[in-house]
Design a protein that fits this description.
By secondary structure, the protein is an all-alpha fold. It has 11 helices and no strands. The longest helix is centred in the first third of the chain and has 32 residues.
């Protein structure tokens, strides 16, 4: 890329086209920002959903701070931490997504048809995550230390993205739909220990403490990307809102069942993982009732 730019500058005729292209890109970016600002001004709840997913994602960076002073969590500590995340995501998918979806279906003019469609949307959300998992080469952070050959950083980052996108999607959908019920705060809380685990894995892969913390923060910022899709879907859904809520719940449930529960319930750690899962569910229940 540097050589291409250098050749452009070496030829005055081509330099003019380069600056024209840059100017066009700047104008297009400014136009996109202006249109986005107008859209969010017309849909204030959508902006709330995007801000909620950003808040939840930034909590991952907050959780990464301990790696600047401490080592990776012990195997005994990782089990309840992963269980806690699983329990909170499980409860969030129920209280903030499925319950509002079912309530909306029950008061609709065609509860049977919409109920079947909502159930199919739930399965569709899980199927989407399974499809992405099968087609994205990745390596889970919790298994980094247990392998003789360490995976590439890119494979670990891909796994984190797969995990964070449905979280951001769910937070965006719930907040933009006005049915947050503590989901944003709950996901943010469970992202704190997750950030510590992610940053510790980056150190195991050879990154320095500061770089590992920044990389963990960067992976957390994947959540607003999912949140953006969530707020757009919830804003455009209208009468089909239960389908959007159910699809986000299906994606969350897939992550809990496929990744977090198996990781927290490895041989010898089942009791600690279960305790963490129940504690996470209890915390999320309290948030759902109190918020």
């Amino acid at each position: 890329m540097t050589q291409i730019v250098a050749r452009h500058y070496a030829r005055p005729a081509a330099r003019k086209h380069l600056w024209t292209g840059i100017a066009m890109a700047v104008v297009a970016l400014a136009f996109g920002i202006d249109q986005a600002a107008q859209w969010f001004a017309a849909h204030p709840m959508a902006l709330t959903g995007l801000q909620a997913s950003l808040f939840a994602g930034l909590a991952t960076g907050l959780g990464a701070i301990p790696v600047l002073f401490m080592r990776r969590p012990t195997e005994h500590l990782m089990a309840p931490m992963l269980g806690l995340a699983g329990g909170m995501m499980l409860a969030a998918s129920l209280f903030s997504l499925l319950v509002p979806a079912v309530q909306t279906v029950a008061t609709s003019s065609a509860p049977l048809g919409l109920g079947i469609a909502t159930a199919l949307a739930l399965l569709g959300g899980a199927a989407m995550m399974h499809w992405m998992d099968q087609r994205t080469e990745h390596s889970h952070v919790e298994s980094v230390d247990s392998r003789r050959a360490l995976p590439q950083v890119g494979l670990v980052v891909a796994a984190i993205a797969l995990h964070n996108v449905p979280e951001g999607l769910a937070v965006g959908v719930a907040a933009a739909s006005g049915v947050d019920h503590g989901m944003t705060l709950g996901i943010a809380i469970q992202n704190v220990p997750e950030g510590w685990i992610v940053a510790s894995a980056m150190i195991a892969l050879g990154a320095g403490p500061l770089r590992a913390a920044l990389m963990a923060l960067a992976t957390g910022l994947v959540e607003p990307v999912g949140g953006l899709f969530g707020v757009i879907a919830s804003t455009a859904a209208g009468a089909a809102l239960p389908l959007t809520l159910a699809a986000a719940a299906g994606a969350m449930l897939w992550v809990v069942s496929h990744e977090l529960i198996p990781a927290s319930h490895r041989p010898g750690r089942e009791a600690a993982g279960t305790a963490g899962l129940l504690a996470g569910f209890a915390v999320m229940t309290t948030l759902a009732v109190g918020l």
